[in-house]
Design a protein that fits this description.
The chain is mainly beta. It is built from no helices and nine strands. The protein has a single domain, classed as Immunoglobulin-like, CATH 2.60.40. Strands 3, 5, 6 and 9 form a four-stranded antiparallel sheet that branches. A three-stranded antiparallel sheet has the order 4-8-7, with no helix packed on it. It has a two-stranded antiparallel ribbon with strand order 1-2. It is elongated, with a radius of gyration of 16 Å.
Length: about 110
Amino acid sequence: MDAPLKWREGRSQALTEIGDTEIVEDVEAGGTYTVPIDHGDLAEFAIAEAPRIEEIADVAILLCCDGTDGGHFKLCVMIADTFTGEYYGYGGPGPDLTIRWTRRGVLDGAA
């Protein structure tokens, strides 16, 4: 990183935490999904931790290393056969999955 640390948008470039919610529509029990997350509009990190994902019953969520950088990450989501989910009215008739995540890092001064 060539740019010096600086103030911008009311916060320092020091450690910052962001978070959001991603809705995956019409998941199926026993299904496996890849969920890309683009958080570049919230923050671009020069150095970042892996995202922290809120636990969901009957769902395993792992970080896919490919596609993960300071502004993006990708999740590998495995739905158990026992998953019933919630119907939020998104997409078709299948249950929808809400993924809540947070990520901490040092903001990228070049962004």
